[in-house]
Amino acid sequence: MSEKRVYTFGNGKAEGNAQMRERLGGKGANLAEMNLIGVPVPPGFTITTDTCNEYYEVGQDKIVELLKDEVNAAVSHVEELMKSKFGDVENPLLVSVRSGARASMPGMMDTILNLGLNDEVAEGMCRKTGNPHFVYDSYRRFVQMYGDVVLGMKPENKEDIDPFEKIIEQVKKEQGVELDKDLSVDSLKRLVTLFKTAIKDQTGADFPNDPIEQLWGAICAVFRSWMNERAILYRKMEGIPDEWGTAVSVMAMVFGNMGDTSATGVCFSRDAGNGENLFNGEYLINAQGEDVVAGIRTPQQITKIGSQRWAERAGISEEERVAKYPSMEEAMPELYAELDALQDKLEHHYHDMQDMEFTVQEGKLWFLQTRNGKRTGTAMVKIAMDLLHEGMIDEKTAILRCEPQKLDELLHPVFDKLALSKAKVITQGLPASPGAACGQIVFHADDAEAWHADGHKVIMVRIETSPEDLAGMSAAEGILTARGGMTSHAAVVARGMGKCCVSGAGAINVDYKAKTVEIDGTVYKEGDYISLNGTTGQVYAGEVKTKAAELSGDFKELMELCDKYTKLQVRTNADTPHDARMGREFGAKGIGLTRTEHMFFEGQKIIAMREMILASDVAGREKALAKLLPYQKADFKGILEAMDGLHVNIRLLDPPLHEFVPHDREGQEIMAKEMGVSVTEIQKRVNSLAENNPMLGHRGCRLGITFPEITAMQTRAILTAACELKKEGKNPCPEIMVPLIGTVLELKQQKAIITKTAKEVFEEQGIEVEFEIGTMIEIPRAALTASQIAEEAQYFSFGTNDLTQMTYGYSRDDIASFLPAYMEKKILKVDPFQVLDQEGVGQLIEMAVKNGRAVRPELRTGICGEHGGEPSSVKFCAKVGMNYASCSPFRVPIARLAAAQAAVEE
Ligand code: ADP
Ligand code: MG
Ligand code: MG
Which domain of life is it from (predicted)? Predict the structure, then answer.
């Protein structure tokens, strides 16, 4: 069977297109597409992602055999278009071999440039170009990349220095220069020889001279890079399946390092940090590929306005800027105009912000990549709204363009204005990724992880970051680097993570060994506090207080748009008036869950609560409950008032009683005194409450069944609070929820107590308040018998934490001991307590909704577990026709967006 594995492109033609990203990877598909729409791209070909999977099945030799004919034909195709030949001494073709998955994974996999060089080809190129510096600069880069990536020279321990970098340092010293670019031709030649010797010494292998052999080595190395550690970690973080595989794009080299009319750069059609509709980017004259992002030389701005803003932040005068750091717009005006026109064309073609790579070879502009740019949450919202206003996309597309999870960033704290005005700026870097962060300084990724695990907030301070630092960056509150521009690794990755980052703070001196950073004469040690403003690039000494964000501007507009399309409402979980207000500010349409147990923990309340539990008879319990009543009433009143006019779903006491009683001698003595009994008596009672399996023990409605006085007291507190509010002219809408039922009889009996108490309260108060009685569906048996339960319940609230626990039979308190192994062995893809298991638990939910509504068509259904703020779970709730999802206040906007997306996708 001849399945097509190779797709060529070049000179305005292509076998692939943008729709084929699954097969050609994002990079390959867009390289094809750019050819089709008239953007200049060097010719080449792409090997499919399926071939990568095949590689893992059949191995290197077999894959080469399977690919051989197609790759040879594709190489000839490129040779024809380039009018040069692979390995030819007179007129050689050099190529790059690049990775590219379906979803972009910037910097995670490997790329090899300048492939096709050997000693003879290099000499031939020198004759042809008359530019030996360029030729040997390219050659030494190639040997280094090939050695690292294909021949495994890259040190396994990330702290070890790349052996090639050591050699470069040594040769620079010998020649007496500081920068790579100042290396002489002889030094570059020497590097090539020394590199090859190092390869031979370390691996025993000779560097391959035959370009075709080089090519196969590189292609297979790119396949292998799909499974390198950092790529695997990145996929885990981004939820990208291992099965996707990477495509390999091979394309003719164009050279940005051929002299002063050559350059290379990275640019964005809009600002990826704040979303501003302003073309921007960075470039370097006489440089190649990675130089711009590697953070080795600080790149210059592409646009004049970008350059001016940059200079202003860096405190550089306009004269100095123009003389030393001109923008591309000023230095290469014609090329700039062409670049600007093409970036605009690409944005209009893809209807989204583009992130592009380009190279200028001796005055000719080439595009090497375009993709929908990664952006911060702030930029995501602004760009979606701007594109909508500009008429480039419609409302539904605008909603779908925003990733719910990313809204998280907009909800993160910003610096408190007052605290900020008093804070001391110690240095200034580039505003690489917005937001505010403060924490303790750490210098290594491992330390960031360890400190974070110990509960510290940390700021990771680095000279520059590399893909190896990923896990550490993820654990940090913010990242500060000494080197690198707005498109450096640190900046791009931080923006992707929505993490505050200040890059290129050139005035800081990091000493990894001593674990110190010197800033303007002051030495900061590991563990010292600093604060970063990723929006301005400013760095502050100490801990600058932050404050909560608010819903306004584009964000508000997006949320209103969501409400226009959504069918599923979003409520908030709130146990305090403060949380209730916050949830409401973020657009919650009521409270989906108020847990009453937390209310018992403060001050005098816990004493009365303990007294109630430890009492030996009903009279003793009622006495204690009477003390609790006013506290509970006040709590409920505050919450109902904060949610005036909206439903507030209050759950009766749920957790096992032993959680409330004192287990220490001191606490027991206090209770003995309070209740006038012996400490031994108290101990006996405490011990009697111990359970082997508290999660499945005396909790939930089982408490109300055995101690009906508790249910009565809580009902009385809720409804008295409601009556009082109503008398004050308010409109309280309480719902009383019975937790953890497994049979309808539990609900029936609790309901009888609630109804009876309600009657009493309304008579006492001389006023009635409308309220509802519902139940949690969180025991599988409750879901299975939903049609019976719906006879008694006015609403169902799915408690998916317990439902997951009991459906899987995983204790949610103990899952940590085996979850990692289950994920590793791919038995579980995700933690089912975070992402709802639609297949199993979902079936119970769907069935309960359907069967419940069959009995009671107006039955209201909602979710109140952790899953209520997780986008895929929220979408599931919308799909099965629930009325609302409820989540913590900070996740309300996320759930609103997910709910709207579910409606739009439908
Ligand atoms: P990544 O996915 O890590 O960005 P790329 O495959 O895009 O890796 O390549 C790394 C760098 O090399 C980029 O700056 C890119 O523009 C440059 N590059 C890749 N192919 C070529 C080529 N054919 N000619 C010139 N530069 C290239
Ligand atoms: Mg790239
Ligand atoms: Mg529960």
Answer: Bacteria
Write the CA distances from 598 to 195, 230, 294, 295, 652, integer angstroms. 65, 42, 51, 50, 12
- pLDDT, position 679: 94
Ligand that comes closest to the CA of residue 802: 3
Q: Is 359 in the pocket of ligand 1 (CB under 6 A)?
A: yes
Q: Is the CB of 290 under 6 A from ligand 1?
A: yes
* 98 CB within 6 A, ligand 1: yes
112-124 per-position pLDDT tens digit: 999 999 999 999 9
Spatial contact of 274 and 376, defined as CB atoms under 8 Å apart:
yes
Residue having the nearest C-alpha atom to atom 13 of ligand 1: 289
Neighbours of ion ligand 3 (CB under 5 A): 778, 799, 802
* Residue 1's pLDDT band (cuts 50, 70, 90): very low
Is 351 a residue of the active site? no
Q: Is the dihedral of CA 299, 304, 310, 316 positive or negative?
A: positive
Task: Evaluate if residue 760 carries a pLDDT over 60.
Answer: yes
Cβ of 113 less than 6 Å from ligand 1: yes
Given the residues 220, 864, 877, 887, select the one marked as catalytic. Answer: 864
Q: Each residue of 186-242: pLDDT tens digit? A: 999 999 999 999 999 999 989 999 999 999 999 999 999 999 988 998 898 888 999
Ligand 1 pocket test, candidate residues 27, 81, 82, 111, most atoms within 8 A of CB: 111
Please name which ligand lies nearest the alpha carbon of 653: 3
- Exposed, middle or buried: residue 706 (CB in 10 Å: 0-12, 13-18, 19+)? exposed
Residue for token pair 């962060």: 437
Active-site pick, 489, 647, 658, 867: 489
Atom of ligand 1 minimally distant from the CA of 266: 14
pLDDT at 687 over 50: yes
Atom of ligand 1 nearest to the CA of 289: 14
Residue ranges of alpha helices (H) inside 275-428 are 291-294, 304-314, 318-324, 328-331, 333-350, 377-389, 395-401, 417-422
Tell me the domains of the chain and their CATH numbers: 1-118+209-253 (3.30.1490.20), 131-207 (1.20.80.30), 263-375 (3.30.470.20), 412-547 (3.50.30.10), 566-656+691-905 (3.20.20.60)
Instruction: Tell me the pLDDT tens digit for each residue of 492-528.
Output: 788 767 689 999 898 999 999 999 999 989 999 999 9
pLDDT number for residue 894: 95
Output the pLDDT for position 421. 83
Ligand 1: residue whose CA is nearest its atom 26: 289
Tokens at 675, concatenated: 């209740």
**To test the ligand 1 pocket, which listed residue (360, 362, 369) has its Cβ within 8 A of the most ligand atoms?**
369
52-109: per-residue pLDDT in tens? Answer: 999 999 999 999 999 999 999 999 999 999 999 999 998 999 999 999 999 988 878 8
Ligand 1 atom nearest 42 alpha carbon: 23
Burial class (CB in 10 A: 0-12, 13-18, 19+), 796: buried
pLDDT averaged over the chain? 93
Task: Phi first, then psi: give them for residue 437, nearest 5 degrees.
Answer: -150, 140
Task: Name the closest-CA residue to atom 22, ligand 1.
Answer: 253
Give percent of the chain with pLDDT exceeding 90. Answer: 78
Token code pair at residue 575: 């146990």
- Is 864 known to be catalytic? yes
Q: Is the CB of 251 under 6 A from ligand 1?
A: yes
Tell me the pLDDT tens digit for each residue of 463-480. Answer: 988 877 888 998 999 999
Query: In a 10 Å sphere around its CB, with 0-12 CB exposed, 13-18 middle and 19+ buried, how is residue 250 labelled?
Result: buried
pLDDT for residue 439: 94
Quote the pLDDT of residue 294. 65
Q: Position of tokens 């317990």?
A: 802
Regarding the beta carbon of 682 and ligand 1, being less than 6 Å apart is answered no
Query: Which atom of ligand 1 is the closest one to the Cα of 368?
Result: 16
